[in-house]
Every structure is written in C-alpha cells, then in structure tokens.
Amino acid sequence: MRTSYISVLLIFMSCIASAQELIPPIQNHTSIEYNGASQNWDLAIDDSGIIYAANNQGLLSFDGLTWELFQLDTGGIIRSVLPHGERIYTGSYQEFGYWSRDLKGEMHYTSLMSLLKEYTLQSEEFWEILTYKDAIYFRSFGAIYEYKKGKIKPIKEIVSNKMIVFNDRLLIAVGKEGLFYLETDGSLNTLPNQEILSGKRVLDLEVVGDDLFIGTAKKLYKFDGSSVTTYHSNELNRLLSDFEFNHLTKFSQNELLIATLRNGLILHNIETGNTSIFNRESGLQNNTVLGMAKRNGKVWLGLDNGIDEIDLASPIKFYTDHTGELGAVYDLAFYRNSLYAASNTGVYRLDNNGITMIKGAQGHSWNLEVLDDVLYSNHNSGTYKVVDDTFKVIENRTGSFQIIPVKDRTNTYLIGNYTGISIYEPSGEMREFTELNFPVKKIIFEGPSVIWAEHANEGIYRLGINSSLDEISFKDQIGHEQKGLNHRLKIFKLNGQIAILKNKDWYQYNKFKDTLELFKDLKNYRNHELLLEDELGYWFRDRLTNDIKFTNFRDTELEVSFKELNMRTVKGNERMIKAKDSIFYLTLKDGFAKIDLNALIDSRSEVQLSQPVIKGVIDLKQRYDLTDSPTIPYNSARQLTFLAGLPDSDAAELHYELSGEQNIEGHIIDGKLTFQNLSQGDYQLKLFALGPQGTYSEVTKFKFVVDSPWYLSNLMLVVYAFLILATIVVVYTINKRKLKKHQHLLEQRLEREHRERIERLEKKRLKDEIMIKRKELANTTMMAAKKNEVLMDIQGELNKDKDKFSNQYRLKHIMTKINQAIKNKDEWQVFETNFKEVHEDFSKDLLESFPHLTSKDLKLCSYLKMNLTSKEIAPLMGKSVRGVEVHRYRLRKKMELDSQENLSNYLIKNF
C-alpha cells in the first residue's frame, strides 16, 4: 500500500519551487538543425504561427515541421524582423526591406533603400521594426524611418533605444534622456513624471493592462499613467541586477517574461511576485537571450547559441538531474516532508538543499514503499529501511523487488526477492517459504490465504499460504500453455480482480472455473501495461510506442505521447505515482515528470490544430504555381516533391492522402513529401493534422495533373490517329492492289489453265491423231509389206515356173510390173509423208548426228524406228531378209554402235 500526504506534498512543492524547480517542456533547436548561424537577434511570429528569426546568416523561418534560411544578396546580418500581412520586414546594416512569397511559394526579398533617394544613411543598423496605424517604422540607433504608401521618409534623427505604441501614440526611449511621444510632425513630447529614469538607458518597454513596464540594464520600472516608479519587487530587481536585463514582453495579464544576458529567462507573476528562472541548468542551450516571442502558451527564445521553445502552458513539468548523479529513476516516495527517489545509482532525498544520497544506499534500487510510517527500499543488495537518512538492513542475503503488507495482519510483510518470498515481521526473525526457489518480482493478494507471484522470467504462480505463514499449501503455474512465452506474463489487480497481461492480450482469472478468460473490458488496451489504478482512473503504457494513456472507462481517455515526455521514460520500468488530487509523477531515465491530470484534460479539449499549408510543389525541373492546379510533365513526375508546413499546432502527426490513378496515404515527418513515378492522370492531395485525442484539423486539398508521356500526348494521339488512318488506307490500297493482282493472276491462271486444257486437249487430239496416223502408218506399212510380200511370192512362183510360160515377154513384163509394184516410189512417198507427220524431225535429227547416211539408210532407219523386224522390212525394201540384215550391219558400222546395242531401241530412244 502506498500512502501520500497532502501536507507533505505541499511542503515538498515549496521546496521544489525554490531549489530544484519543475521545468515545462523545453525543445532545443540547434544551429545544426536550422542550418544557420548560432546567434539569433530577434524573433517574431506571424498570424499563421510561422516563426521568424533574425539570424547572423539571414532570415530563418520555421513552419512547425521544417526550418528555412533566406539570405540577403550582401550576406549581411539581420538584426530585426516583423511579420505584417503577407510581408516579413527585416532590418540589417544600412539595409531594410521586406520578404514575400510568390505564387510558387518561393521567398523573395525587396529592398526599400531605393525609396530613400538622395538621403544618405550614417553607418546605421536597424534593430527594431514596428507597425503603427497604417505605417511601418524602422529604428536604428541614429534615426527612425517611416514606410507608408510606398514611400520612405526619415521621421526623426535621434539616438533611440526602443519604441512602442502606448495610449495609441508612438513612444520612444531616447538615449539616457527618458521616454518621449513622437508626434506626426517629428516633435517630441516627454512622458510626465519620469525623473527617476534620468541618466538611465531604457532597453525595452511593455504594456500590461493600463501600465507601462520599463526595463533598464539593472532594474524594472512601471508607469501607471501618472508617474514612473521603481517596480515593487526588490527580489526581481536584484535578479535583474545580477543577470543583466535585455528584453521584456507580456506573457499574460499578470505575468511578464524577462530576457537576460547572463542567466536565461525570468517568468514573473505581477500579482503573487513568484519568479521562475529558465537557464542552462533548466535545459536552455545558452543563458544569453537576445530575442523572444510568444504564442498560445509557448515562448520562443532567440539565443546567442540556438533557438529554444518553452511550453509554459504544458500540463507536464519535468525535473531533470543534469549532473547525471541521480541516474534512471525507478520509483518515488513522499516521506516526512521530503521526496525520495530510487534509481539505478541508489536512493536519494530531494529537498531544498538539492540531491542527497542516503548513506549506504549506493547501487540499484527497484522500489520504495512507505508502510506504517517507515520508508522501505527494495535494493539490488537486499531489503532496507531508511532511518535518519541512513540505510538500515532488514535482509541482505539477496536482492529484492517488492515489499507489501500481509492482508488482515499488522506489522507483517511479504518481500519478493531474488530467490523467493520472505516473511518479515519487525519484531521477529526473517523467514522464507522454503517451497519457492525462483525470483519473485511482484506479489498480489487474491485473498487472505491466496497470493499471486510473478516470476521474474518464467510466468506467474498462484500460491496458497496457511494462516501461520510457514508453508505453501499449493502452487499452480498459470498461463504456461504456450511454451517459451511465459516470460511475457504480468499480473495486476484491477478493480479488485486479478488481471494478467499475457503476450499482448488481457485476461482475468475465474476462480470458480480456475481458468483465464479474456478481459473484455480491456480489449482496447492490447499490449498496454497497467501503471496505476486509483479513484480517478487507470494509467497504461503502450509497450509498442511507449506512449502513456489514461482512461476512466467512461468519458475520459487521454494520451501522452513518448515525444511529449521528451522520450525519457525508463522503457519497461515506468512507475506512475499518485501525489494528490489530480497530480501524478512519472519516473524518467534522468529524473521525473509531474502530470496535472485536470490541466491535461483541459489542454486536450483546447488542442490547437491548424490547417496544414503547402509551401511548394517541385518536380525534377521546376517549381509550380500554388494558386492553380498544375500539370506536371510525365518525365518530370518521376520525382514530385511537396513542401508542407504545420505552424502553431498541437498535432501529434501530419497525415496525407493521395487519390487518383494511384492511391497512397501515410504520415509526413520532416515537412517533405516525395512521390516517385506517378502514373498519368488527375490527382488530389489531402493534408490534415491528427490531434493527440484522434481529432482532425481542417483538410488542405491540392489538385494536380500528371500529363501523359510524349507518346500519349494529344498531338501524338492525333499523329497516331493519322498513322492508323494512313495505315488503313495503305493496307486497303495494298489489299486492293493485291486483290486486283490476285484477280489478274486468277484470270491469268484460269486463262493459262484454259489454254493448257486446250493445249492438253489439242495435244491429246494430236496424240490421238498421231496414234491414228501411227496406226494408219503401221497398217499402211504392213499392208504394203503384205502386198510386196505377196508380190514377191508371186514373183518367186513365176520364177519357178517361168520356163513353163510360153510367152516369156509377157512373163517378163509381168515380172517387171511386179518389181515396179514392189519398188513403187509412190508408196514410199506416202509412207514418208505419214512417217514425218508422226516423227517430224526424225530424218533431220538423224542426219545431224550421222550426216554420211544414205537415203536407203534413212529408209531402213525409218522402218527400224517403227520397231519393224527384218522380216517385215524386207518386203518393204524389196530385199531378202538376209539383205536387210546385211544392211543393218552396215548401218551399225556407220553409226559406230556397239554390237550389243539394239539398233531399233537406239533409234526409238534417241530420235
């Protein structure tokens, strides 16, 4: 059980206020981060929340995500800055003018020096710019200039240190002469009753209500409308004398912010007189504050080395040990008017005197408990109690994790240690449960006789204990069904129920069924570890993101991001401690954080979510007009970059959604969003901020078009259409020509086929005629042969019986007639004519091959060509068969044919 006392806390808080003060979140922006010079002379914030700094290298701007540096062409140091309307006025050495963004979002500088015409500056630097009515005033140490309606004119050549609008009049601090109203005609009217300022240089002025606060190097004064008097806080004036005053500005209606040159920033409450100091020990980068600006509870400081941001309105404050002595804090306890911290280096007391280590408390300490007005420490070397700021040993046999009172028994405690559980009674001896031999990190009572023990490495156990606390009646390991995952089990008591975080899910123990069941009420808190339960609600830690969450499971649910805690939590060993009412403390790796729950709820209900801005659209070749929907060339869209800003916002993150031919979404971290290889088509980019509680800012929309590639452009589409049409025409023409040619070829083919058919028919007819002629020739020849044969037979018969004829003359005449009939030339001519019709070039071809052949040879060859035998040839030639054979033999000789060669076959084959 933890006990905390409101009176103790109040005393502790007063100690903290005067010694180790709790500091609001401070964010450092180094010169490396903003890529500029170290020194920043002036700071200003425009209406949208963009921060501007007058830097040694130029004008710095911060849009909530990224820093930009804009340099003068001369490379001069910028000393002053004032945003007004769409312009950012700056002053430098012998130079003043304004910066403005063009339609593409690029910043350009316009010098106003040319408007001075013949007027010559006297080595002047412009340290202050102020807007009054419808004019802009630039102040150097030697003169004041007015810029109005496009004209510049010197108003007053005078040494001045500061100017301010007071009672609707322009008031200036003149050297060491005091304060004067600057009239429109250039005359000066003194502020009444300011003799106390005589001989003092006024460095800064600020109006709070009806009063004018006046700052000099050593002291603060106030003009109440009738006279100037020394500010009533002697303590503040002492601090200003020590720290050296530089600048002054109003933080609220009763609070002042005072920048010093030697010890950072002072926050002073006019009503209470309370003063807070923020310096290097508090977390600033430098103690010399050269400029400052405020907006929505945040103060921006331009330092001699860097730029810092202090969130004075934050519900979270930090205590940080910059010496490193304290180390990582594991627990806190309020005890006897002091705050005690257990850390990895020991146990410490924090009070008005600073940090003091408890004697003998060196080493790793896990836990602090105040039980029955005794402060106990569970230490790496044992269990101790703190007596007169000294460690007194309770048990040092082994280290321990926890000490808790035994339910329904007084002055009896259980100690979870490295080897098991010990029973401690201050009036008796220390003893142990001998049945246990494992490290017990946490103990929870289910009832008077049942406890739960969390093994440091291997899961959890449900243990039965007897009334005399001398033995374990039963020991059940719980949730060990999945081997290898038991080390992820943690036990808690939540709303009187035993709750177990197993892996990522929450379970509750059903003692009637002796089983674990899903804890439905915690289904939205998977992988969230319980840090604290009290009457206000429950604190959880997201084990994945290390964010801290609070809920009462009714109408309140809050989240404190890991970033808001400066990423300083002791991961896996966070401890949340209830102090009083709505005040909680969270251990950190180098101190602790104080969280005001009520203030946190109020701040979350007033979250400032500004609308994101798009500052630039850039492709590989150019930057585009932001007032129109640009068309991006396809090749240039291979890398398309959007520059985004989120000024003056409490957003947790900046989200984007790209819709169109491609749909992409995600988060923007550094203000730069790059898309690669976007397809052609119409797109819309949406930007919106997400608040800590899941709220959304107003959406910023930007439309653009990725043009078609050159081969899909409108011109090329026309070309393609023309080419397609031309192709169609060409194809049509070619096909038409092919068709015509094909038709022509078909006609020729048909004609050829017709002709060939006719020729075939003609050839066939001729062949038929030849065959007929051959047959006729053969028939005629055979008939002639038969006739000659008959005639020769007759002749032979007549020769046989010639002596019997009486009329020899008549016989001789008959024989002559027969010889004439046999050797009838007309028959040969008819044969020759018919033969030539059948074998047209036979004789010609034969004579070309054998020119020495005689007509008789040709005649014999003709008969042989007709494949006639010697016997058939003999009658035709009027010879005997022997005579034909002899003639054939001679013919073979003439033709020089081999004896084996058939003469008829030779003639038929070759001629």
TrEMBL record:
Which keywords label this protein? Kinase, Membrane, Signal, Transferase, Transmembrane, Transmembrane helix
Q: Which SUPFAM superfamilies match?
A: C-terminal effector domain of the bipartite response regulators (SSF46894), Calcium-dependent phosphotriesterase (SSF63829)
Say yes or no: keyword Signal present: yes
Query: Mind giving the lineage of the organism this protein is from?
Result: Bacteria, Pseudomonadati, Bacteroidota, Flavobacteriia, Flavobacteriales
Q: Does the keyword Transmembrane apply?
A: yes
**Could you say which residues form the signal peptide?**
1-19
| Organism domain of life | Bacteria
Q: Where is the HTH luxR-type domain?
A: 850-907
GO terms (molecular function) for this protein are:
kinase activity
PROSITE patterns tied to this protein: PROKAR_LIPOPROTEIN (PS51257)
Q: What is this protein called?
A: Histidine kinase
Q: Which residues cross the membrane?
A: 710-734
InterPro entries assigned:
Ig-like_fold (IPR013783), Sig_transdc_resp-reg_C-effctor (IPR016032), Tscrpt_reg_LuxR_C (IPR000792), WD40/YVTN_repeat-like_dom_sf (IPR015943), WH-like_DNA-bd_sf (IPR036388)
